[in-house]
Amino acid sequence: MKLLEHQAKAQFRNEGIECPMGRVARTPGEAESAARELGEVVVKAQVPIGGRGKAGGVKVARTPEEARAAASQILQMEIRGYRVPAVLLEELLDIGQELYLGVTLDRDRRRLAVLLSFAGGMEIEDVAERTPEKIAKLWPDPFSGPLPFEIRQLTLNALASAQGEQVLDRSRLLNLMVPLVQRLYQLCQRLDATLCEINPLVITRSGQLIAGDGKVEVDQNAEYRHQDLVRELGGDAEAASSGDDQLEVEARRRGLTYVHLGGDIGVIGNGAGLVMNTLDLVKQQGGSPANFLDIGGGAKAEVVRQALEMVLLDPEVKGIFVNIFGGITRGDEVAKGLIQARDELQIKLPLVVRMTGTREEEGRRLLEEAGITPAVSAPEAARRVVEMVAGAGR
Amino acid sequence: MSILLNSESRVLVQGMTGSEGTFHTQQMIEFGTNVVAGVSPGKGGSQHLGRPVFDSVAEAVIATGATVSGVFVPPAFAADAIMEAAAAGLQLVVCITELIPVNDMVRARAYLSSRAARLVGPNCPGLMSPGERSKVGIIPNQNGKPGPVGVVSRSGTLTYEIMQSLGAAGYGQSTAVGIGGDPVLGLSFSDVLELFAADPKTELVVMAGEIGGSDEERAAELIGRGYPKPVVGFISGRTAPPGKRMGHAGAIISGNTGSAASKVAALERAGVEVADTIEQIVERVTARLRRG
């Protein structure tokens, strides 16, 4: 779950991280009255992706009327497929310097990493690629969190690669960074987030540290602990998924592990690694997979039926490849389930099934009698489904 | 011989009285695993599947001398269960549970760093040493055959397929280890490769990776520095697009890291033969073992 900027900043404030004064507006009228309170403002589209500035989703407004006009424009935009449910109006900051501060999961270290750089405001991925030495890193013990001396060292390391004049003298900077980093790290833990990012972290000319932007991604596996947040996001969460693939949104609603890939061969299998490999086989045979769909370790008939139904929602699908590793599951039962599902759903498309399990030969015989193409090996099944779809297209 | 698990291993199961725990413990016992106890807080003093049930891992260890734990508890309690097992001094903890919050695993990993316990998983099928008649986890019993091939993989069903295909061609396994599909794991490919290197019964290793993270690249570095046994590689997810989580929480290409191309290239640079299909894995294994 990705939070929108204004939601992330509400969390920042709770944690004692300073943010610009701001108001959320959902209509041009609300934007105008917010600007009356705030004075000169920046009006920002609330969408869960980067690049909104380039897309015209961020505008400066000097007067309430300008704010109204800017909001009216931005609220009608669609930014990289995402509807804009709201704008955030914020006071203009007197920017002295822009830093990057983030807490993110580092898979290799199996820990959260704190990243600090004086090359702020840029995409951190670009900095990481071009000038990795400009990013200082720290991997705190998750039980103690980042300790003050560790944060001071992190800051000194980042300073060593900083260019130009510093707004703050070193001792003041060190003193301000310690509580800020601790709070951001705590927030990341409290929200079960895999990313909490402030980019830019603004140092104002008067020497304050303020979060210019905010990004928070909550771990999907931990959402059950944050139901209040999920509820609070409500309608915004819907807008936040408006740019997502609509077939994937539907699959999520049905509780299926589905990824839309855009080709014409529907793929169903059990186990993530097995399904990924099945996609690879289809591609190796010159075919183009329509989707990834993992029905999980078992192979229950009802789940297979639901999966077939899901795959058929994609109008591009011209053939289906089911790859089931049965283990102790009985092949004849899987076959019966598939035949029944095919009949109920009135599937007329080519359907190729490769399955293993006890009594798999009997299963294959049943499939063949019912007009479904059985295959002994997965590469053979891939070849056949690709041929059948290509043949049907001619 | 084998790695991590052998006929001497005394196994307890955390969450044995649950439905998954019950089913898979039965399977483990049928396979020959020496299951000595179950742990379910609040159910101590009872019997389940003919084994004593304890309230805590520490009590179970004192009473039964258990050395290994299999964790089948629900995701909200799994990280705690792993830490409890490590605190009780177990040597090996195998966590099958999937959907554990990743920050829970970050804490569990940090907790383990100062303790003896090795962790396999989570979100994994566990491991099996067929020649020792011992398994912890959910690998189907009939897929294991004793033999000289070490198998290490991130996936479940794909591991079973590989084991079955190898078995059908006459090649059994010393030990098969599923390290799991999560972003934060216990043992890495490199850790397991080092164990296989030291196991006299393992003549060759099949390593099946997938997109996401850089554990495969790290393993390639290890092999490149000089690995004593042939390794046959395999990477699934070659056609996966960036930014999409392919079923496993860890199977996602983010930015420049985690692509199949990078993993295949790293392995090939290290001299690993990378197979395109499971059938090819069997062919390569056959060729290498015949060559002796």
Task: Give an overview of the whole structure.
- The complex is a heterodimer of chains A (394) and B (292).
- By secondary structure, chain A is α+β, with helices and mostly antiparallel strands.
- The mean pLDDT of chain A is 91.
- Chain A folds into 3 domains: 171 residues, D-amino Acid Aminotransferase, Chain A, domain 1 (2-Layer Sandwich); 72 residues, Dna Ligase, domain 1 (2-Layer Sandwich), CATH 3.30.1490.20; 147 residues, Rossmann fold (3-Layer(aba) Sandwich).
- With 292 residues, chain B is α/β, with parallel strands linked by helices.
- Chain B folds into 2 domains: 123 residues, Rossmann fold (3-Layer(aba) Sandwich), CATH 3.40.50.720; 154 residues, Rossmann fold.
- Helix content of chain B is 34%, strand content 22%.
- Chain B is built from 9 helices and 14 strands.
- In chain B, the strands form 2 sheets. A 7-stranded mixed sheet of chain B has the order 3-4-2-1-5-6-7, with helices on both faces. A 7-stranded mixed sheet of chain B has the order 9-8-11-10-12-13-14, sandwiched between helices.
- In chain B, β3 and β4 form a beta hairpin.
- In chain B, α7 packs parallel to α8.
- The two termini of chain B are 19 Å apart.
- The mean pLDDT of chain B is 95.
- The interface between A and B is large, with 51 and 61 residues.
Helix content of chain A: 40-55%
Report how far apart the termini of chain B are: 19 Å
Main pleated-sheet profile of chain A: 7 strands, antiparallel
Average of pLDDT of chain A: 91
Q: Give the terminus-to-terminus CA distance of chain A.
A: 43 Å
Number of helices of chain B: 9
Under CATH at level 1, the class of the largest domain in chain A stands as Alpha Beta
CATH architecture of the largest domain in chain A: 2-Layer Sandwich
From the 3D structure, determine the CATH topology of the largest domain in chain B: Rossmann fold
By secondary-structure content and strand pairing, the structural class of chain A works out as alpha+beta
Unreliable sequence segments of chain A: none
